[in-house]
User: Fold these one by one.
Assistant:
Number 1:
Amino acid sequence: MSLPCGLAPEDGLPVGFQIMSAGLNVSQLQAVHFTQGPSLVLAGAGSGKTRVITQKIAHLISQGMAPQGIAAITFTNKAAAEMRERTKQLVGKLAQETLICTFHSLGVRLLRDHGDALGLKEQFSILGSDDVLGILKDCGGSTDTAAVRQWQWQISSWKNDGLDSSDALRMAKSEDERALAVLMQRYEERLAAYQSVDFDDLIGLPLKLLQRREDIRQLWQSKLQHVLVDEYQDTNATQYELLKLLVGSKAHFTAVGDDDQSIYGWRGATLDNLRKLPLDFPQLRVIKLEQNYRSTSAILRAANAVIASNPKLFEKTLFSELGEGEPVRVLACDNEEHEADRAVARIQSLRSSSQHRAMKDFAILYRANHQARIFEQALRKAQIPYKVSGGQSFFERAEIKDLCAWLRLMANNNDDPAFLRAVTTPKRGIGHQTLAQLGAFAASHRLSMFEALFSHSISAAIPARGLGSLQEFGRFVNDTEFNARAIKGAEDAGAFLHQWLKDLGYERYLFDNEDNEKLAAARWKNVLEFCDWMAKRCGGITDDTAGITTTSPAKSLIDVVQSVALLSTLSGDEKEEDVVTLSTLHAAKGLEWPHVCLVGVNEGLLPFRSDASDDAPQEAQELRIQEERRLMYVGITRAQRTLMVSWLKRRKKGREFINGKPSRFIEEMALDQATVREDPREKLKALRAQFAQRASEEALPPN
DNA sequence: TTTAACAAATTTTTT
DNA sequence: ATTTGTTAAA
């Protein structure tokens, strides 16, 4: 492949450079080579963005930059893992020195190192969102899950905008907001008492830290020579502020993103960050990657047509040199079952046609998780292997959460959510009555539940019977021998875990509490798998817990479990299985497949519409639609060779059936009328139905 | 007071 | 269909 004109870099550059530059196009090379200031790389879908980032890391190193001085920040652990892997392929072991992690794990790192400046012990806990839900229910005295979710959501968005409870209180416009701000304050106090942080704090607190402590800020600014941010369009206000403080006035950073793929507005991401970048950094170099290496022209044309209805932040048009390809297919289905059958039929027919198509070449993409179910059934019936991504994560499983709660509690006795879970698994004669009493006592004395347990005045508050079992539990948790082994026992972590499970009687507990023998066995298997995974993590070979690479030789169980809240899948089990993928559109971002079925593309489903969103102001409605449109764009651009888009003529909504309308995005794809025809088999079926009906009409005597 | 059995409600997207 | 809240039994 010939190098682009004017940029032939052979002379005057370090050895190894030519290998690295091989195969990059002009704009990609520009993006890689611009290192002396801030740059924004607008990377269209499939334009080789990960390649640019990894090549840039390699380039910086080859220019003599210390690998430790480079940070690459992503949003998901998966993206971080892939980036580390691909960097390793370019620079070898040096990749381990580079900080390649998610925003959240970077936050963890900052807080573990410097959290004491904010009154946070090193052993703080990270709360998952259902821990948070539980705390808010307790603080707000409500059991209405839906309502509390709303509070949780509002508090989270305040935090994402960089507001704390006093800001919220000051700015509150209604009585409701004031009440919520007060609740938020109570929530903050609780977290402080529990020595715990939530997901949003993992960004907000490090930001606070860098704002307040100049010494720490200096430390990091001099440590980091270049920061690369992946999926920049997904950053929220606090993440942007954090980035600015990390890079300092030198502003050596590379933001890589695509405004057309911004689909996380609902969790605080804002395109303002993209808009503001050229204003905040006038010397910003903007580079566009417009050549797509993934999809055929037919697919890309549909994608461009859809996104054309959105206002443009930066003008850019993707093009492909992979040829026209198969036309995009649109399919109208009678109902969900029919749609699932059609998707299965499509997979089967493509597989039986000339080329050898693997199962892993296919993906079925949908808007919401619950849509997966019907496709699972159909695939199972057809004996097609599949995996569901973006469903329930391994660490969400009850049995895994049980174990994590135990370990968390050992690490941080003040972790009340962990306490509440551990104290009742297995059942030890302690019920909500006793726990409510303990909780009330703890709250009134501003203690965590564990502290309250051994407080001297506790016996007055709780009947002796319950207190006895509680304190026995407390002693077991703090069993010195166990703790010592958990904290240092790195090499025999596996053996320790098994011993501990036995002492706990966890296996018996699982089987006693589940009358379905098989299910209990599956759970137990999960537990064992989890233990193996933990043990491996503690082994100290190469460790990348929560996306942070550390070279420390051995880690304790406690260290490992503290980052589990950030993980969703057991990393390392990413074995390439030859199976069909079922995925939400959100979880599909960054991935690609030769053949994609985009299903349930209905008005109300793909531009998603909830009853609540109806009475939102006009402008907000429009922004919502734009984000849904980007979601459609993401879906279309996942496909390499063929794309089928289907919609439902009748669909279930809640309990009853309603008539379905094709999504407005289907029309926006501006396909040739000829391609929007129904599948030939579909026609045949319709004909048959007509025939049958006519026959029955004839058979029946008129009236 | 605890636990197990039973009834009812509920679905956007996720670090 | 799964999961949460309520009620009844132990």
Number 2:
Amino acid sequence: MAVGGGGTGYVPEAEAQLVDASNGAPLFHQIAVILRDRIVSGELGPGARLPSEADICGLWSVSRITAKRALDTLALEGLVARARGRGTTVLQRTRPPSATTRLDGWFENASRMAEATTIHVLGFGYRPAPAHVANELDLTPGTEVQHARRVRRLDGRALSHLESWVPAEIGRGWTEQAMRATPLMRLLAEHGAAPATARQTISATTAPPDVAAALDMVSGAALLDVRRRVVDASGRAVQFMRALYRPDLYRFEMELGRSEGEGGWRTDAASTPERQAGASQG
Amino acid sequence: MAVGGGGTGYVPEAEAQLVDASNGAPLFHQIAVILRDRIVSGELGPGARLPSEADICGLWSVSRITAKRALDTLALEGLVARARGRGTTVLQRTRPPSATTRLDGWFENASRMAEATTIHVLGFGYRPAPAHVANELDLTPGTEVQHARRVRRLDGRALSHLESWVPAEIGRGWTEQAMRATPLMRLLAEHGAAPATARQTISATTAPPDVAAALDMVSGAALLDVRRRVVDASGRAVQFMRALYRPDLYRFEMELGRSEGEGGWRTDAASTPERQAGASQG
DNA sequence: CACTATTTGTCCGTATGTATG
DNA sequence: TCATACATACGGACAAATAGT
């Protein structure tokens, strides 16, 4: 029995994607992951039909209850619509990945982003710098730093979770209200620490429960993990931040040409031991 | 009893990270996510001690078996070491994120990467182009394309899962052996489709089981999700590929300066409907 | 050296939720 | 709906290794 056709059809190598009961994760969840990936990858576009419950039973040798739960999970997330007789179809992305960032023109991006989004401050205070933060900011561990946790929203939808550390000598005296209304880059500039350059790494991670809650996601979902170390014109580290982005609402986009620079791909080796815990861990 | 101190100390807002039994995900898994994030974020560096099983019991009100399973999970992943009487400690990253990529100098990166890694071909063949691929390659859906699934390995460890589509008129006649030994960019060049530029988007996704198996990860883990549309000098699309990277072994790294270009941040709106499923989905 | 507290390893029995048939 | 199987989670108990007094 083949894949229940219809719509765009084409379900490649369905059987190659195995689900394993002894895997720890519930079966319905594993199947939901597979189908979700086909949707976000674009393989199943808006309007496309997902395999029916009966198809799923046959494809992965599971009971219909399990198949139904997998599809219901996707429906709860708003990815698909289910209807008797019509099957399960991929919904129009009401708002496709709402925000993309080009990696050139950092300053312009930051300020444009600040204009279009709102900030909610989750936490804000002064505390001794943990080791890895002190390392990034060239401070001795325990030095006081300003720590803030914020959420950026684009027309009501949580876009990113931002955790920022600023040396207390710079961040001293900022109010929570200022942190809500004024872009951090401007606050830094107004306190004699105008950002000049930054070193940024992009990775991925799973959402811990507190971040997941702040971003309206389930715990364990995949997030873009961006770390940025900002220095001013004199080379002093003025901010370290970790931003976690919802991948369905935010992504990076870039044009690749020929050479330009000659920085490039490299394996580990090198990298000084002091920096090990921090930026060069990546 | 407070947080089991020791080592680097500083466990911020431990109690603020709640675990919820009715969340769907198992408790031990939720706790493992929290602790794993503290390790990969650098908060707990090599040698640092994790909270003991008893600590975890108190912090999140779970039984010792649950606490133990959370810690055992991290030990299985090779992140921590456990020993009676000594507790659970973060391991030295024997090989820190083995590979990082600067985003300038695409060609140099690609060839350098090809030198240092090996390729394993998982699947290879010709088939009608699914809609989203045809869209990216400016073909009509159903046109024959060459499709390949490969895994890139760096000294034995799976680094990335690569899925590539090339129009059949270009990719016709390539052998599986050539795809293993010769960089794709060179193969393209040798068939009159020398890559000139590419448009790339970086996002994150969860690992479907087949990809997870190929990369030696558990299904559902977070992956870097990179899509690239390559065009030759005449503007013809010559390849579309989706690369999924292990975030612990690979990440992007870049320097951010002032302006340079004026491409930048934007919200949705715009974007032609035809391109909706693909790169300009954002 | 013993003594103790800490911490993990292993075992038991039981209750609940998930998934199959 | 029911019986069965398994994973999850709880509570408790004891043994073994480590570190400090």
